[in-house]
Write a structure and sequence with these properties.
Blueprint: H1 3-19, E1 26-31, H2 35-47, E2 51-57, E3 72-75, H3 81-87, H4 90-101, E4 105-108, H5 112-115, E5 128-134, E6 138-143, E7 161-165, E8 173-178, E9 183-188, E10 194-201, E11 204-209, H6 215-218, H7 221-235, H8 252-263
Parallel strand pairs: 1-2, 1-3, 3-4, 4-11
Antiparallel strand pairs: 5-8, 6-7, 6-9, 9-10, 10-11
Helix pairs in contact: 1-8
């Protein structure tokens, strides 16, 4: 095969690999109690090739369910915040904690921090501590400079700043403080504190957003990409495999590095 043709084949293969980076996962969405919110979440996840199941609201769990078939959970805790605050039982919380410890991935929206701040079980797996809440017309998250934030799947293909209209469910965002050992991927400009933070829990991973994540953010082009990155981060076995140069971006520099490594620098 001529060298130029071989090079084009390699470039095509590399670009295809970058385009299909996200691996399909089995994602369980805990219902928000609002059909519009649930539909926006399902539409986003399915557009990325994930298999999606809409389950009960998180507060309706009894603690006896088997969650092991799901790779990741998106826990929508916005419109139904009051029910979670009042009715989220300890057995249900323990079920979620056991799922994470056994290797499951969970992405939480607010108001999970507010709703469980006085509980004994679930706060143990959250990467942040709740302080107070605020209401804004929009939410702005800025890439954090904390060690471990760059070159991860959460920040892959993300700009320096992500803004989207707020989803206000008796408040739009919480002020969160990251716990020791947690990685802050984005800081919140609008609320202050951690905007997106995550950590390992047993064999699994838990990530938490400071914002409520409703239809406005699930349908925003950039913010929705961040939600998909979060889901992928909770299920991955190695960080952003196609980001070969580890700069948090998927671009020509990764393709060039792939081709150079593959050919050994040969023409």
């Amino acid at each position: 095969m001529p060298a130029n043709t071989a090079r084009r084949v390699l470039l095509t293969a590399a670009l295809a690999g970058v385009a299909s980076l996200a691996q399909a996962a089995d994602v369980l969405v805990f219902s928000s109690g609002d059909g519009e919110v649930d539909a926006a979440a399902v539409g986003l996840l399915e557009s990325a090739g994930h298999d999606v199941t809409v389950g009960v609201q998180i507060w309706e769990l009894t603690g006896t369910e088997d969650l092991s078939a799901h790779d990741s959970i998106l826990a929508l805790c916005g419109p139904n915040w009051y029910q979670i605050y009042s009715n989220f039982t300890e057995p249900a919380q323990q079920l979620i904690a056991d799922y994470a410890n056994a290797g499951g991935g969970i992405v939480f929206s607010e108001w999970i921090g507010y709703c469980t701040q006085f509980e004994a079980v679930l706060p143990e797996i959250l990467p942040t501590t709740y302080q107070f809440y605020a209401s804004h017309e929009s939410v702005t998250l800025n890439r954090a400079s904390a060690p471990g934030a760059e070159g991860t799947t959460v920040t892959c293909q993300m700009p320096q700043s992500v803004s989207a209209p707020a989803d206000d469910f008796s408040g739009s965002e919480s002020v969160l403080v990251a716990k020791p050992g947690a990685t802050v991927f984005f800081d919140s400009e609008t609320a202050g504190g951690a905007g997106v933070a995550g950590w390992n829990v047993g064999s699994g991973r838990v990530l938490q957003f400071s914002s409520t994540i409703g239809p406005n953010q699930l349908t925003d082009f950039t913010f929705s990409r961040l939600v998909l990155n979060a889901i992928e981060w909770t299920t991955e076995t190695e960080p952003c495999a196609a980001d070969i140069v580890r700069d948090g971006l998927l671009d020509l520099s990764d393709v060039t590095a792939f081709v150079t490594a593959f050919t050994g620098g040969c023409e």
